[in-house]
Amino acid sequence: MSHGNVALRQAAFGQTARRDAWWVQPLVVFLVFSGFVVYSTWIAFNGNSSYFYSGNGTHYLAPFYSPVLFDAPGVTSGHAWFGPAPSWWPRWKWFPTFSPALLILWVPAGFRFTCYYYRGAYYKAFWADPPSCGVGEPGFRGTRYRGEQKWPLRIQNVHRYLLYFALAFIAIFAYDAARAFIFTDPGTGQARFGVGMGSIILLANAILLGGYTMGCHSLRHLVGGGIDRLSGRPVRQRAYGCVSCLNRGHMKWAWVSLFWVAFADIYVRLCATGVWHDWRIL
Ligand code: FES
Fold first, then answer.
1. Whose alpha carbon is nearest atom 2 of ligand 1?
2. What separation in Å is there between the alpha carbon of 252 and the centre of ligand 1?
3. By the 8 A CB rule, do 69 and 100 touch?
């Protein structure tokens, strides 16, 4: 049986035979992702950094600031690993004021931006590359466009290394969630177990981010994708099965965890500023 060469016809930008509303998905991705980037950038550079933890007997920590390596200037949160704001932080006029988020946000941000799923989504939504399946893309890239085989997009391969940092962050978020169930009695100063709305929100945050991270394509390759035979290796087989199970719903985990981490961050900040009072359940 012989195969002839099939000539691919270059469709004009936006040209398609599709009759469905193909533009809805990239538009929603564009709006949601842009909103998330604006919010996280504002939080990272927020001059008033004292609103990342709630007091009044609670130990809620805003996830965008976790882990707190150093406290914000003039703040003693009780969450900082290495104490007060670093004296080595540049104090030039044009340089951003120190905020704990500036030291750590590169991990979750880098991990999400290089995620295989998100790449497919934002290449369509932001670069129209192509705008959707079966829809013509802009012609300016010409024939030399090589995608992720060339710089600068080759940087996306850093995802497999960011995975190790992301896994460490999941352990930290789990610790934050456990700490959210400890309340300090304002009268006696004694710590005791309790449940507040913030405890549940931060627990759900750790679970959702865990589900997203543990379903990562790179992790799937790490635990079993790199070997030819899984049979006879029960531990790796089980691990591969678990990661594959989460991986099948990776898109859902990606969006739900994105929404939830922003919501958890806002919730803790509202409690910290006194705009919202945590609902104590137990
Ligand atoms: Fe999405 Fe790794 S592929 S987190």
1. 216
2. 12
3. yes
